[in-house]
Structures are given as C-alpha cells and as structure tokens.
Design goal:
By secondary structure, this protein is of the alpha/beta class. Helices cover 38% and strands 20% of the residues. Helix 1 packs across helix 2. Bound molecules: S-adenosylmethionine. The site of S-adenosylmethionine has 23 residues, from helix 7 and strand 6.
Length: 301
C-alpha cells in the first residue's frame, strides 16, 4: 500500500511525477504558500537531481519508494517554515545562481533595484573605480555588480564571519574575481582609514525591532535576525552609514542604500543633511520606494 507524500493517507495509485506535483501544489496552496506550483516543482526537481523541464518530459514516471522518502523529508522541512531557498541551497539573483543557507538573508528580487541604481550611476561616470558593498551577506549585490563592471575593484564588508565566507565562495564560484575582497567587521570599521570609493552601496538591516515578531514565520524564525533588525525605528544602520560614508567617498562619489518602503522621506532628509546632492529615490518591482541614492557634493570639506 502506498501513502501520500507526507505519509498521512493510504492510496493504491502509483505516485507518478505528475501526481506528486499535483499533491504538493495543493498542499502548499492550502498552507498559503505564494507560488505553490513553482515551489513544488523546484523541490521535486531538487530531490530527483533533475531540471524542471525533465519533470514535464517524465511526468508519468512513478517515483521509487526511496525518492518519495526524500521528498517527504523535504516537505516536512518546508512545513516548519524553512525557506525553499535554504532547502535548495541556492537562489537566483540578477540572473546568477547564489549559494545560500541559514547564515545569510535570502536575496530578494526587490534588491535587484539596488544593482540597477549602481549600474546606472557608474555607467556615464567612470571607466573603472572602487566600489564598496556594506552588509554584503551572500554577496549578491557585490557579485552582480562586479560581473557587469569587471574593471571595477569591489569590496564587501560583513559583520558575520559565516556570511562573509559564503560571499567569498559565491564570488569565486561566479567568477567575480574583482569582488573577492570581503572583509569582516562593523560597517566601515574593517577598512583602512585612508581608503576611498567612487561608489558605496548597501542593503543594511532596516526592519524596526518591534516589527520582527509580526514577520512571516519563514523570515522571522529562519533568516538571521542580524540581517533584519534595524533598531527601534529601523534606521539605526542607515543613519550610521549616511553619516560615515562621506569620509570614504571620493569627491563626486555616490551612495545608494536599500530602504524599507516607508523610509524614503526620512532617508532622503538624512542624505541631504550629510552633504549629498542629486538625491533620488528608485522604486522596486512593486512600485514601492526602495533605493535612495545621492552624490557627495565635491565642494564639501
Ligand atoms: C539585509 S541583509 C543584506 C544581505 C545582502 N546584501 C542582500 O542584499 O541580500 C544585511 C546583512 O548585513 C549584515 N550586517 C548587520 N549588521 C552589520 C554591521 N553593523 N556591519 C556589517 N554588516 C552587518 C548582516 O549580517 C546581513 O548579512
């Protein structure tokens, strides 16, 4: 007698790829998962070691008992709220496949807006230069930028040694030789005092501490708290970065930071108060304010 993939109900019909997928999709949908079919396909393809196309081509193939057992174990992990990206061990960002695990925040599609701004800000200005990615995490921003600006030298800083190690691994795997320098420490602290950059980007933690408990459980219980919590009003790190960045920027250099969608006005005011001009806000895919950027006034002392 067969059982459903979660082991709960007996059934006589064979568990083909198509049937397992239909069952898992329905199960995820009932649990409120955003993209139930996609998650079911990604997880089953991962368990079988296939690409997603093969799931279509071999949809009538019955799963072996051992394959069903491995899929069951994956379903159990997902049901505890563990993000699919951690189970798969990878996540797509800016067309690149990054290794991810519980040491780092899962790269978000909205953060691609930060890379867009970095590319736009560097296109007309410099043939090459030095860029800094604060709070680099998995290295997704630094590596995506470095791949598209191969003549630039890219440095990442990250306070968690485990995350810094993963960022280095991603840079190496993805061939971003110019972004292999990831230094550990608090924001600018691990840099030499005389280092200067033409571009500083960052996606710091910016969620107000009091809102962490209201986040979905996949985020709250599984992603690193240090990647999320931005102090009482969420702006603690943003404030420190905007205040210190002018000392590390070359004249005319650019600072671009990802923000929470309701932090645009406060962050713009901080940029202006610290001598940034041409301050702009870019929106993410959902048209929410997501990236504030500005140019350090070359006349500032
Ligand atoms: C929101 S995550 C961003 C990760 C990655 N850049 C991304 O966009 O997916 C913030 C990262 O900043 C790191 N971090 C938190 N406080 C920091 C600090 N004071 N200095 C450097 N890194 C810090 C966290 O460990 C985490 O990896």
């Amino acid at each position: 007698m067969n059982r459903t993939p979660d082991g709960s109900e007996p059934t006589d019909a064979p568990w083909t790829v198509a049937r397992v997928l239909a069952w898992a999709t329905e199960d995820f949908r009932n649990r409120g998962t955003d993209s139930p079919r996609l998650e079911a396909e990604l997880l089953l393809a991962h368990v079988l070691g296939w690409d997603r196309l093969r799931l279509v081509l071999e949809r009538q193939r019955p799963l072996a008992t051992e394959e069903l057992g491995r899929f069951r174990a994956v379903i159990r992990r997902r049901r505890t709220g563990e993000p699919t990206a951690y189970i798969l061990g990878q996540r797509e960002f800016y067309g690149l496949s990054f290794r991810v695990d519980a040491r780092v925040l899962v790269p978000r599609p909205d953060t691609e807006a930060l890379v867009d701004v970095a590319l736009r800000q560097t296109r007309p200005r410099f043939m090459s230069g030095a860029a800094l990615d604060l709070c680099t995490g998995s290295g997704c921003v630094a590596v995506a930028f470095a791949r598209l600006r191969p003549t630039w030298e890219v440095t990442g800083t990250e306070i968690e040694p485990g995350a810094a190690a993963l960022a280095r691994e991603n840079a190496l795997r993805l061939g971003a030789w110019n972004a292999l320098r990831v230094v550990e420490g608090d924001l600018f602290a691990p840099l030499e005092p005389n280092e200067r950059f033409d571009l500083i980007v960052g996606n710091p933690p910016y969620i107000p501490d009091g809102e962490i408990s209201r986040l979905p459980s996949d985020v709250r219980d599984h992603e690193p708290r240090r990647a999320l919590a931005g102090g009482a009003d969420g702006l603690e790190l943003i404030r420190r970065i905007v205040a210190q960045a002018p000392s590390f920027l070359n004249p005319g250099g650019v600072l671009a930071l990802e923000i929470g969608c309701d932090q645009g006005a406060a962050t713009r005011a901080l940029f202006r108060a610290h001598g940034f001009v041409a301050v702009e806000v870019d929106r993410d895919l959902g048209q929410r304010e997501r990236v504030v950027s500005g140019v350090i006034d070359a006349m500032m002392p």
